Amino acid sequence: MRGYAARRLLLLVPVLFGVTLVVFGVMSLVPGDPALAILGPYATPERLADLRADLGLDRSWPARYLLWLGNLWQGDLGRSVSLEQPVRDAVLGRLGPTLLLAGSALMLGTLLGLAAGLLAALRHNRITDRLVTLTVLIGISLPSFWLGLLLILLFAVWLGWLPASGMSTVWLAGTSPGDVLRHLLLPTLSLALVAAGVIGRIARAAAIDVLAADHIRLCRARGIAEPRILLVHGLKAVLARTMPVIGLQAGFLIGGAVYIETIFQWPGLGRMLVDAIAARDLLLVQGGVLVLATAYVLVNLAADLFQHGLDRRTRAA
Amino acid sequence: MLLPLLAGCSRQLPPDDSLVIGQVAEARSLDPHVATALNDFRILINVYEGLVRYRPGTLEPMPGLAESWTVSDDGLIYEFRLRPGVRFHDGSAFDAESVRFNFQRMLDATHPFHDTGPFPLAFFFEQVQRVERVDKLTVRFVLDAPFAPFLSNLAYPIGLMVSPAAVRRYGRDVGRHPSGTGPFMFSDWQSGRRVTLTRFDDYHGEPAASRRLIFRPITDPMTRVAELMAGGIDLALELSPDNVAAFRERLGYQVLEATGPHLWFLILNTRDGPLTDPRVRRAVDLAIDKQSLVRDVLRDTAEIAVGAVPRAFAWAVDTELSPTAYDLERARALLADAALSNDPTLRLLVPRGGSGMLAPLAMATAIQGDLARAGIAVVIESYEWNAYLARVNAGLDADADMAAMAWMTNDPDTLPYLALRCDARPEQGGFNSGYYCNPDVDALIEQARQATDRGERARLYRSMSRIVQRDTPWAVVASWRQNLVARGRVQGLRVDPSFFLRLDRAWKQSRE
Predict the structure, then answer these.
(1) Smallest Cβ distance to B15: which of A171, A263, A264?
(2) CATH code of the domain in which A104 resides
């Protein structure tokens, strides 16, 4: 088990190497560059050349990639041209909000998804199952950004119960947990409903299988009530089967919350990356992708390890 | 389950002494010599001041940190008398030495703080040969050549004065620790969330009316609308034309507008293809229904433009020159006259968005329809903004007949000088991507640039504009009207043609 984890962690190195190389190469091949983005319509060839030299863009991209790798070794991610600050500060400053949003959406999504899946499995082929399945299908099909806009309209504009966007109330000096929670609610809900849909479908299928297993039949023969059977004797097996999907959802939420971050003006990494790509801010994109890719790999590893653990205990039981 | 809990929450609104502004993007730098975006300028203009500034409501320079100035007869020497007793927010004094420091930092590669750049717009002062301190409150600029736009350039954010003490202290990070002489001083910047400015109590002029300004970056225009309606912000910039139209009708909101020194036009390829024939260019100009573009597509967030000088430069504009009126018959006649061998298909390049480009795709589609009615087929090719600049700034090749472009300038000289002269072709480092060339136009631009008398300059620009309208190197369509939508109780707001947003007189009435 420990050996497995170590192997997977070691694998992180070539994965990150590959990801950053591809990002660097692609970003360098896309037309336009940061100097052009900064100068805009004033970008004469001469001024472009000057600014490119100032920004270190006049070297070939493989040379710049090697330089970047060398600096990375010393913990230096370079300086962002579109934010005029060190990439490390920019990325670390945005990582917290992204993890907070993704984490809370994953938790809520998993709870809702498991609840829906188990409920549907218990009422397999009955009206409740059909209703839950339909709701889950709607959850998966709804674009989260559209859902987000509807939530803003209802809770912020019409009812005025919650703030429309941002992560904290800008006119307050500090940030209190309660204030952040109020800002967190709507974006979390927009993301969680979609995640719940995906998780719910898998959980339902898993629970139906589990309910047909031999040891469950034995429980049933002993006269234990169906919900109790599922929750006490079947939940671990259902979780084990659902865990890889939860892991994938976690990765998706960390990297894919771009629309939601934009609509809710959440100061996270996804939104920063989109802006960085538009500004051709190569080093910022690199830094952001590096952190996101690491988080993605780690989260999936954690999910796998968790599943391993569950499987063993299930087998032992 | 959470709903009953939420019902206890009431709508939270910003306090009366603070104005919350919904900006379009995160600021890049609050160092005026490093910043290039309007989004940053709107913050900077409240923190810093320059030697001169634009007279409210116009683009004409008036005294700022300089009380008065003289210009030598040959237009080479400008001497400024500085306002006494002015202090930067960090407490240091503003004097002739501070002015010298600011310009040397930008222009002199050997200056110890030149490496705190890059300063992308330093070329605004490329004619400045040296800056001299005459005495504590007098500073002298010596130019290489007469350069009439010098004063307007000083009024641009690139001419704002930064505290030398702050540059020495923070170096390259001074853009995150700004210190100027303006009515508001910087207090904090939380990335992606807010930039807060507070009233500077030792301001040398009338103190600001509000205690605090909070700039929030809200990139999504729908979210800016939602925040304005939810009360989370007091004013929002650059809403979409449809939203502005909706707010005009809505009670409790005010829409403020000012037409900027901006031109949206199609560059026509005068070197290759059917548009080399001036009759065909003229036909294109006549066949575009600008009235409908401005009214129906842009919902009055722009006005019809004419010539090469935007109307915002009131003093230089030819009021007798009227925009090309929509005339399908004449367009068809000109096309028949040109007797093109086969029905032309023109290729129109447009960006999908971009600084000052308004609604490029919707406008291009409308233009495509207009030209089809005149018998000209148009194929639209769209690009992402950055890739677009790379393509169009390199010059229109045989595969491109027209390209949409927009410019916002601070002097009538800038655009024609950079984009219409024979010597401004892309190969020569200019922006004349359509390869228009008329020596008469060149001569007029050059003379206007050297004239020290403004009446004379105005006369030259008027003559130039007439020739340009006749030759039609561009199909000039519209000038952007900046819009600002604010809640009704915000008072003392003003939008200027510069599109900057000085908020020292703005305040909020208390809620009853």
Answers:
(1) A171
(2) 1.10.3720.10
